[in-house]
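Field: COMPLEX_INPUT
Field: COMPONENT_COUNT = two
Field: RESIDUE_TOTAL = 644
Field: MODE = joint
Values follow.
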Amino acid sequence: MAFSQRFIEVDGCRINLRRGGSGEPLLYLHGANGAPAVLPFMEKLAQRFDVLVPEHPGFGASDEPEWLENMHDLAYFYLDVLKSLELRGVHLVGSSLGGWLALEMAVRDASRLKSLVLVGPAGISVPGVSPGDVFLWSPDELARNLFFDPALAEKMIAQPMTPELLDVSLKNRHTVARLGWEPRMHDPFLRKWLHRVSVPVKIVWGEADKILPVAYAGEFKRLMPGAEIEIIPRCGHLPQTERPEEFCDIVTRFTGMG
Amino acid sequence: MPYADLDLKAGREHGTVWVNLPNSNFDPVKGHRLYNRYLDELEHGEELGFDAIAVNEHHQTAYGLMPSPIVTASALARRTSRAKIAILGSALPLREHPLMVAEEHAMIDVISGGRLISGFVRGIGAEYHTFGVNPTFSHDRFHEAHDLIVRAWTEPGPFAFQGRHYNVQYVNLWPRPYQKPHPPIWIPSQGSKETIDWAAHPDRRYTYLQTFSPASVVQRYLKMYRDTCEGFGYEAEDSQLGWAVPVYVAASDEAAQAEAKPHFEAFRNVFLKMPVEMLLPPGYTSRESLKNVMKAKAAIFGDITLEKSIELGLIICGSPATARQALASYWQAMRFGNLLVLCQFGTLPADLTRRNMELFAREVMPAVKQLTSSDKPRSSDGHASR
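Field: COMPLEX_OUTPUT
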């Protein structure tokens, strides 16, 4: 499935948008590592959905707007993106920081949303559970803590670092810090308003997640009793990358597209 | 002010003594002895004729036992009577409220009868990990905190301050500082163009103090400061420039090197060591500076011997004659008006520290002070760096 690539401008900010497939709209919100390429799970989802993969403001090839100071800014921006692209009935799929973003959007305005799929989402803190420190780990440590399968980590580590990739990685890292350094990867006020998420929610978690431990899933279930939880065994922080087939099956079944 | 009793093996094996070296490695009884030893040494600095005594701020680390330089400076304010007391500096962005810094510095200035030199820093990258303060707002917070402090020191209160990070309805400082318009402000830095542009601005003309760097780097940044002043249309006074450097003198070059070696290498290769992710969190520096550091990673993060450090001018070490000669030649190249001498570093024990201070004061300091009659350099003794 071919993806198109173009820049769109919303709120004075140009962002890079990849789009492919047809069907109901599915907006994928990437996590801290950005969305530099079309990945197999996106291709597969594009067989059933109109898949939109933007690079967030402050990430990849997108602008770094001065107004971007916190996750609330990013949530309002994406609500404006939905409006600007005249999208309705959107399936929002967010991974990690992108899952947090999806929740910040949904508590504000779910009128253009149809469902949420949250993949190891950040956004809350869990008493007694320490997330991994992505800012203190070296790039190699980070890669090894991302996946259950060491082969995937080694493949990531072996990727040569070009000057362009380095620039993008430093840019992404800066924006992640701006949004999630303190409080670390969460918004202490978000949990109060999670009941406002008025669309069906599926939460997918890798059982061996070392970034955000699977105990988070239990806390989300407590805060959002209507949410469905799916724990994937022998899988790390990125089920969409580590188990693309299984992940896409979960999404299509949950959204009724299977 | 290092925790000189650190088990160096534990520090080395942990990879860093910053942020997450377990504090079970700190023994409060040994700490008690160390604090009192260091305070005695600093006080002795005044008796030896140093112009100023300097303290600094570091958090949650065996590298330095002064999370609050306010505490040490306060003790010195009462135990000294002539020397300037230099806080180099208070880490403004790490503070919840800059008005507390304005108040504490003003208190010390008033108590000491106007002997305070106020240094402002951002804190090092590691401290953004320990405190959780967002490093991408570090510069913003620094500048805003600075503006609030200087206005609190100089403008009649009460007045309101509105900022992005700090909002105060009634700024009305009691006490106001003793010195008019306010204590001299120094900006210690590891070297950055942004800092120099800001410090050299005609509205500020703050003394720029280059800390622990190879002499060629110190020279480059001090020149950049002078050039920046010229760009602003004025000539920098030598007193606007400073260099903070470890110094160790003994009877001969050989003796000095043999005595300093283990202690300096512990300082450089254990106490200062940390991974790049800890040293430079995102936003702490520009991304271009970060890339330059990553390119020079081996040179910056690798171990380095005393001999190599002498060659690079990371330390001045030798007989008094050697030290005099080295400082005279560095002065010719840099014309620093202020020299901050670190007489204690790493694990350097009390007897060697005291002898170093005394020998330096007797046989090196007079020559340094004579380097020029028109613009007299000041020597300070400090347990400060970074």
